[in-house]
Amino acid sequence: MNSTVGISTAQDLIKAPLLYKGKVRELYDLGDKFLLVVTDRISAFDFILSPPIPDKGNVLNRVSAYWFEQTASIQKSHFIHADVNQLGDDIVVSEEARELLKDRITVGHKAERIDVECVVRGYITGNGWRQYQKNGEVNGIKLPDGLRKNSKLAEPIFTPAAKHDVGHDVDITWDELVEKVGVALATQLRDHSIKLYEQAHQKCLEKGILIADCKFEFGMLNGELILIDEIFTPDCSRFWDQSKYALDIEIDSMDKEPVRQYLANSDWDKVSEPDPLPEHVVAETRSRYVDIWQRLTQ
């Protein structure tokens, strides 16, 4: 990976109709399938920042493809392939576009999305820690007294959120999830999510990496629950270097932390459009993404 320029959109590279443009991903219609393109856009505090982070998109896409393959034996997914050369000239506008899209695309099955963010927490940190400090619970789950920030939980917990395409997802309790999707589907979502987390957590331990928490999205395809979107990337999982693990501190996560730290320490008001990121922040953030890819997959 040696890109110096990030890709902010694929709309000029793809002939297929654009179905959805998220903060990072773009979804294109291929008839009975979809084309997912992962751009190099980066967001923080609900703003799309500039410039994009070179190689971020291909890292996220390749990490997802790696994990879809690693977990295929326990969980079906939308994943069909991630090979841009299997896309015809009726989809990709040129050979130059094909090169730009290399490692950034996934072709997948269309599924009916379940509007639930399936969050699994193996350690008490972040929003989970803030909830626990208030009442000893996370999403209505009572946890033991005396836990410290970053404590490893005896068992991973499932703490779902209701998805909203506009605004923030909203944490919900188990009972609220059951009311939303029914007990049978709620149980499937919980059990599948925890099983995925446990397998990946064990595999990451072998690489000296801890997964503190993560989130999944699921959909229904022909009456069957399948995994969709992304899986165990730095954008949907909190990775910690095992050598830096400690209690009662803010552990530096292996993701876009340099961007968050830069913005938090700047005089930006988090309301107006932020100034472009400095070159050193872009370079350090790119390095984080490339590093997690190499450590996870090599």
Task: Indicate the topology.
Blueprint lengths: L17 E4 L3 E5 L3 E6 L3 E3 L2 E3 L6 H15 L8 E3 L13 H7 L3 E5 L2 E2 L2 E8 L2 H10 L1 E2 L2 E2 L9 E7 L2 E2 L7 E2 L2 H8 L1 H23 L3 E13 L2 E5 L8 E5 L15 H8 L14 H19 L1
Antiparallel strand pairs: 1-2, 2-3, 3-7, 4-5, 6-7, 8-15, 9-12, 9-13, 9-15, 10-11, 13-14, 15-16, 15-17
Helix pairs in contact: 1-7, 4-5, 6-7
Provide an overview of this structure:
The protein is an alpha+beta fold and about 300 residues long. It folds into 2 domains: about 1-110, Phosphorylase Kinase, domain 1 (2-Layer Sandwich); about 115-245, 2-Layer Sandwich (D-amino Acid Aminotransferase, Chain A, domain 1), CATH 3.30.470. It is about 30% helix and about 25% strand. It has helices spanning about 55-70, 95-100, 125-135, 175-180, 185-205, 255-265, 280-295; strands at about 20, 25-30, 35-40, 40-45, 45-50, 80, 105-110, 110-115, 115-125, 135-140, 140, 150-160, 160, 170, 210-220, 225-230, 235-240. β13 (about 160) and β14 (about 170) form a beta hairpin. The chain starts with 17 loop residues before the first strand and ends with a helix. The model has no long low-confidence stretch (mean pLDDT about 95).
